[in-house]
């Protein structure tokens, strides 16, 4: 950070020495930022003298370039001597044949033109063009450098660059001459300048309307084409193609080929006659053009290729006889070159577009083009794929036209590979047509479908995996067509269903991992899900039995394939569509044995896919004995199956059907009937369930079904239940092996189970199983649907967060039992990790956990003789503590003695670890925990724990040492960001200090002398409490990295607030040295312009606080000596009065300066410069730029203070009243339409201390920021205060 003398404006011209060593006057000597000076006369003499040593010239130019980077030097040069260096720099450019010097001069001229106005630019262009027009440099290296400089200037794209050229004819004449030289460097520079001149004249001709370049046509065209043909440089080709494209666009090729002269200027006619012999001696322009474009078409530079292709298109587009010209180009093999470009393009725009434009215009020469098309067709097939897939591709029509031309007129050229590829493309086009994405003529649609069918049935296409890509859309298109025409041709649907079934089976017969077959399967599955299944469910009443059987059989074939993921996904789609209800409806419509068997076999496959372990075999075993009506199924369930194997299988089948259908709320009967049947089954078959080997799946099915219907009964408050059945089921859950976290269960059932206190012990064991399996579960959590899921940590977190169950109690008791019993450490860590994941997933769970006493469990962990010595356990507990304290609401915290004991252990661990290992990640997390404890103490909870932190001598010593080390670093502290160990520890220490300031004020009100921190004797012992002096905070804020600046600014603002409270309460005078506060203000004033709005706002508020302390000597210094305050106000006024105020970012960044301005207006004596800065015109400009949506609280505050100080006149007040009235209306409308601000906490449980730091900083910032509604309310209040002040003034 650089400081300037406060007595000088940062942009005022510095004092210069009276003369230089050569006696030149001081006005021509400019000072540099480093303290040196540059004499413009000496510099000009040096660089414009061709005899000057090149080393001296290069050094002088480098110094000038460095000086131009300094705003003050540049300002003085452009303000007082804008044209002084023009002539010397141009002279130097033409005096030295040293390339590095030339580059320096060109860069300097570019910089000066970029910083200066158009007059400086025009002067450079004029002088350089005169120099080039004269021919004095005789195409030497100096000529090339000067020409390059002109090209750079013309590339600035300012208006009317060509008008600055004095003698355009002479310049162009010299340039055309240069094209005939053998140097590619000269040719490239000449072509670029000619291109820029031609482009500028094309955009805006001279005042006399004369086109200079046309006077040199066709000589210019021939020379340019010869250069293009001979050169091997892509840069020269690019410039040449650019020039020729502009000339072609202006129609000069047509004029040249017709031997006509477009201009009527006599000079042009003379020039044309002089060049006639040159034109006739060489090849014709058409042949020369064809030869010249071949090499660029094969260039490796894509830009050159595209430019050449566009040139061909422009050339042919302007020709009156395009067929003849195309014939010539094709005979010269240009079509082959274009096809080769297309082949090598990789199907990437814009090469594809340019190639196809050229091929389309070449195709007018039909016979010649077909011969080339037979050879180049292979390059068109991938392009067809590309353009067909891009919506509204600009050359899609041209591509289709060329492909149709080939298929129609060149039979036999399509290979086996082409069959597969074209099949894919045509099938895709048909799909887009049927989906309404593209339109297609009937003939085109018919031919496309016919070609697709022919390609798929071709023997040449067999045995290749690419056929799968062709097939994937054909069955879908056939299905869609049949469904749309079902009323007219119902029998065709069976054929399309057969095609779907066989295509899906084919995709599994080959390599299932091949991407082509995978795409085929996905397409067919999508057709089943999105087309066939919805149609079948909505049309079930209108179809015949054979159609229904065909649809069910086709859908069933998907489930029978050995593909777990696809089959499971498809099964979920089926049951989500109420498949069970529709199946029984179908059975009601067609009650035949054939239909019953098909339906129940389908059910068994669904059960197999969703539950696994061949569970559907139970249904297949009972299929012949199952009824067709769901009510009859429930009757079967309510029977006793003792010694009746057939009944046993039927009841298991019914339970499985109810279990699967329940996941998607597919009710087969009334809830009362189902619950009654379940209870009757449990009671009648209790002995078989309890004392015989019941399968685990049956127990889990019963748990889910009973919990679901009991949960539904609880919601309705109407369905009675059997206590005996409940008792039997709970006993079954305690005695039998089952796993709630490996089964699928309805969320309603899960919630009901966790609401039953009688089975908390059983559920606790289930939770422990989950924790053992999910030690690192939060790294791969899968969130499931809101209806059913495989239970995981996410589901448990939802239960705990809801608070209407025993989820939190189960977790806390489980963890407490493990700690008390001294169980295995890995079990405890597993449970801790799951609890941490729960808190991380749902912050609201922290309140429930704390209310159920997790603090006591943590205390027991820290004081357990074995567990407290485990670093792994302590780390996990620390992260969990930070998450809990960061998420929990203060009112949910209780048991201060518990947290007090934990705090003591934390401090001991921190002091011991820092002394041995320094600031480790674990220590930083502990500091974060202590910070959160202090934060909660502001709500009068955890008071004793906070006192322990604040009054800990070892902790105070560690913090003081850290601050002392950081302050001793000085400017090097800027490198100690959050990525360094020193910076990271400093950030956490400052965060702890910030929260300690708030805590001390809350729990030790009025006992601490805050003014003692204004003392500059850092060695003086104040009190055994965490403290940092103000000057140390300012030093950290001045030298520190951005994060340190931010936290320190919050600390300083909090500290100043405490000093102000103490001063107002005791009416004390400040106790500090005379120059102490000015040194603090110097730091704060500079940071008002900080890019971080939070730092800028905090520093501005701190400045306001200092100014409001009312110290007379301070006010005198501010008024008379401090130019920084004036600069702040001037910048504020200039920004607010600028016409383009509408920048959203500024609506935030003006706020710090407003607070400083308001504080200056509140001083006892307002200096005259405030009146000058805030004059009537400035205030009027500010008010004119205000709108209802740009008004902020700070702006209203500023206007209120201006009103109190008498700065506002009646016109100002009228304008403000109008704006404020509109603003009020907007605010009231917003309050009616909006809801409460959604302020949610982010997850903070992490191994990364950076995320912990981020959370603490966000928490700190949120205490000083306001939500949208609060801000709007504050704005309305400020407007009311303004109106009140206005009323009081009118009353006076």
TrEMBL record:
GO terms, biological process? meiotic DNA double-strand break formation
Q: Which domain of life is it from?
A: Eukaryota
Question: PANTHER family in the record, alphabetically?
Answer: PROTEIN PRD1 (PTHR36379), PUTATIVE RECOMBINATION INITIATION DEFECT 1-RELATED (PTHR36379:SF1)
Q: Which protein, by its recorded name, is this?
A: Protein PRD1
Originating species: Escallonia herrerae
């Amino acid at each position: 950070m650089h400081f300037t003398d406060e007595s000088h404006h940062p942009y005022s011209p510095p004092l210069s020495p009276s003369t230089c060593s050569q006696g030149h006057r001081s006005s021509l000597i400019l000072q540099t930022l480093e303290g040196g000076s540059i004499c413009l006369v000496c510099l000009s003499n040096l660089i414009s003298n061709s005899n000057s040593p090149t080393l001296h010239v290069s050094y002088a130019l480098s110094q000038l370039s460095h000086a131009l980077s300094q705003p003050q030097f540049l300002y003085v040069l452009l303000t007082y001597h804008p044209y002084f260096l023009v002539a010397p720099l141009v002279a130097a450019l033409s005096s030295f044949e040293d390339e590095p010097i030339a580059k320096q001069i060109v860069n300097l001229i570019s910089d000066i033109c970029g910083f200066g106005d158009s007059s400086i630019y025009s002067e450079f262009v004029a002088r350089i063009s005169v120099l080039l027009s004269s021919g004095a440099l005789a195409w030497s290296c100096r000529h090339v450098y000067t020409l390059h400089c002109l090209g750079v200037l013309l590339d600035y794209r300012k208006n009317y660059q060509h008008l600055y050229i004095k003698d355009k004819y002479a310049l162009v004449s010299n340039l055309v001459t240069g094209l005939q030289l053998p140097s590619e460097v000269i040719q490239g520079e000449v072509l670029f300048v000619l291109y820029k001149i031609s482009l500028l004249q094309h955009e805006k001709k001279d005042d006399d309307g004369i086109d200079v370049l046309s006077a040199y046509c066709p000589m210019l065209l021939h020379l340019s084409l010869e250069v293009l043909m001979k050169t091997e440089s892509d840069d020269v080709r690019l410039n040449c193609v650019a020039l020729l494209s502009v000339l072609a666009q202006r129609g000069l090729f047509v004029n040249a080929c017709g031997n006509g002269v477009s201009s009527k200027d006599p000079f042009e006619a003379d020039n044309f006659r002089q060049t006639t012999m040159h034109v006739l001696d060489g090849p014709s322009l058409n042949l020369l053009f064809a030869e010249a474009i071949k090499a660029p078409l094969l260039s490796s530079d894509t830009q050159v290729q595209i430019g050449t292709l566009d040139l061909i298109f422009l050339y042919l587009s302007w020709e009156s006889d395009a067929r003849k010209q195309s014939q010539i180009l094709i005979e010269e093999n240009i079509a082959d070159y274009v096809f080769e470009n297309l082949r090598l393009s990789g199907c990437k725009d814009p090469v594809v577009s340019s190639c196809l434009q050229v091929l389309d215009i070449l195709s007018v020469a039909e016979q010649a083009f077909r011969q080339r098309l037979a050879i180049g067709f292979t390059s068109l097939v991938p392009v067809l794929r590309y353009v067909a897939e891009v919506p509204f591709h600009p050359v899609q029509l041209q591509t289709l036209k060329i492909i149709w031309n080939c298929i129609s007129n060149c039979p036999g050229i399509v290979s086996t590979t082409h069959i597969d590829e074209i099949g894919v493309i045509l099938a895709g086009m048909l799909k887009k047509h049927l989906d309404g994405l593209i339109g297609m003529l009937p003939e085109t649609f018919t031919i496309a479908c016919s070609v697709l069918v022919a390609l798929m049935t071709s023997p040449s296409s067999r045995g290749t995996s690419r056929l799968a890509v062709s097939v994937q859309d054909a069955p879908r298109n056939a299905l869609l067509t049949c469904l749309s025409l079902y009323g007219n041709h119902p029998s065709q649907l069976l054929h399309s269903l057969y095609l779907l079934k066989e295509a899906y089976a084919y995709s599994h017969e080959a390599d299932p991992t091949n991407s082509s077959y995978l795409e085929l399967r996905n397409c067919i599955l999508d057709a089943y899900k999105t087309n066939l299944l919805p149609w079948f469910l909505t049309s079930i009443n209108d179809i015949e039995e054979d159609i229904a059987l065909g649809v069910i059989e086709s859908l069933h074939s998907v489930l029978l394939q050995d593909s777990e993921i696809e089959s499971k996904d498809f099964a979920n789609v089926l049951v989500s569509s109420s498949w069970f209800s529709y199946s029984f409806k179908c059975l009601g419509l067609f009650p035949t044995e054939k239909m019953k068997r098909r339906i129940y076999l389908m059910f068994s496959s669904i059960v197999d896919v969703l539950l696994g372990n061949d569970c559907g075999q139970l249904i297949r075993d009972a299929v012949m004995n199952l009824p067709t009506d769901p009510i009859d199924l429930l009757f079967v369930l309510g029977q006793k199956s003792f010694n009746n194997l057939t009944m046993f299988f039927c009841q298991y089948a019914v339970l499985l059907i109810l279990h699967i259908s329940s996941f998607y709320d597919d009710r087969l009967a009334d809830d009362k009937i189902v619950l009654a049947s379940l209870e009757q089954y449990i009671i009648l078959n209790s002995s078989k369930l309890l004392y015989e080997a019941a399968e685990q799946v049956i127990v889990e099915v019963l748990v889910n079904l009973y919990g679901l219907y009991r949960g539904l009964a609880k919601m309705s408050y109407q369905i009675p239940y059997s206590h005996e059945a409940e008792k039997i089921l709970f006993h079954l859950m305690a005695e039998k092996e089952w796993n709630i976290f490996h089964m699928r269960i309805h969320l309603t059932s899960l919630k009901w189970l966790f609401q039953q206190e009688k089975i908390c012990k059983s559920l606790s064991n289930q939770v422990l199983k989950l924790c053992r399996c999910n030690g690192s579960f939060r790294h791969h959590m899968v969130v499931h649907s809101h209806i059913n899921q495989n239970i995981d940590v996410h589901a448990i977190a939802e239960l705990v967060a809801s608070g209407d169950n025993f989820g939190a109690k189960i977790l806390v008791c489980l963890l407490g039992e493990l700690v008390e019993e001294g169980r295995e450490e890995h079990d405890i860590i597993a449970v801790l990790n799951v609890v941490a994941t729960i808190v991380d997933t749902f912050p609201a769970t922290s309140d429930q956990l704390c209310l159920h006493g997790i603090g006591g469990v943590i205390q027991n962990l820290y004081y357990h003789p074995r567990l407290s010595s485990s670093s792994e356990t302590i780390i996990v507990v620390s992260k969990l503590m930070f998450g809990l304290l960061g998420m929990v609401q203060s009112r949910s915290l209780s048991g201060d003695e518990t947290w007090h004991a934990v705090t003591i252990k934390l401090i001991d661990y921190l002091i011991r670890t820092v002394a041995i290992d320094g600031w480790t990640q674990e220590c930083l997390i502990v500091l974060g925990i202590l910070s959160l404890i202090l934060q909660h103490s502001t709500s009068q909870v955890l008071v004793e724990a906070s006192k322990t932190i604040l009054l800990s001598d070892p902790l105070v010593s560690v913090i003081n040492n850290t601050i002392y080390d950081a302050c001793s670093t000085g400017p090097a502290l800027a490198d100690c960001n959050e990525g360094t160990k020193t910076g990271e520890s400093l950030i956490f220490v400052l965060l702890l200090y910030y929260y300690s300031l708030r805590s001390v004020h809350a729990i030790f009100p009025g006992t601490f002398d805050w003014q003692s921190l204004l003392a500059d004797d850092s060695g003086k012992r104040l009190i055994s409490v965490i403290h940092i002096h103000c000057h140390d905070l300012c030093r950290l804020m001045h030298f520190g990295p951005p994060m340190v600046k931010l936290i320190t600014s919050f600390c300083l603002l909090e500290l100043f607030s405490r000093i102000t409270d103490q001063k107002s309460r005791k009416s004390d005078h400040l106790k500090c040295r005379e120059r102490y506060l000015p040194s603090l203000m110097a730091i704060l004033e500079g940071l008002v312009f900080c890019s971080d709005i939070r730092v800028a706002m905090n520093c501005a508020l701190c400045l306001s606080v200092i100014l409001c302390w009312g110290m007379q000597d301070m006010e005198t210094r501010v008024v008379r000596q401090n130019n920084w305050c004036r600069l702040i106000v001037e910048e504020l006024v200039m920004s607010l009065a600028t016409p383009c105020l509408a920048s959203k970012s500024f609506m935030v960044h003006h706020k710090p300066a407003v607070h400083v301005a308001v504080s200056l207006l509140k001083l006892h004596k307002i200096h005259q410069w405030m009146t000058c800065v805030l004059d009537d015109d400035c205030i009027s400009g500010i008010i004119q730029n205000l709108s209802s949506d740009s008004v902020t609280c700070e702006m209203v505050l500023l206007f209120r203070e201006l009103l109190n100080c008498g700065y506002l006149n009646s016109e100002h007040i009228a304008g403000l009243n109008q704006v404020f009235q509109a603003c009020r209306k907007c605010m009231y409308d917003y309050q009616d339409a909006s809801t409460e601000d959604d302020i949610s906490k982010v997850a903070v449980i992490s191994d990364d201390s950076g995320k912990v730091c981020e959370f603490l900083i966000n928490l700190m910032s949120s205490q000083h920021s306001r939500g949208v509604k609060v801000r709007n309310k504050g704005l309305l209040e400020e407007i009311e205060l303004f109106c009140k002040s206005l009323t009081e003034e009118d009353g006076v």
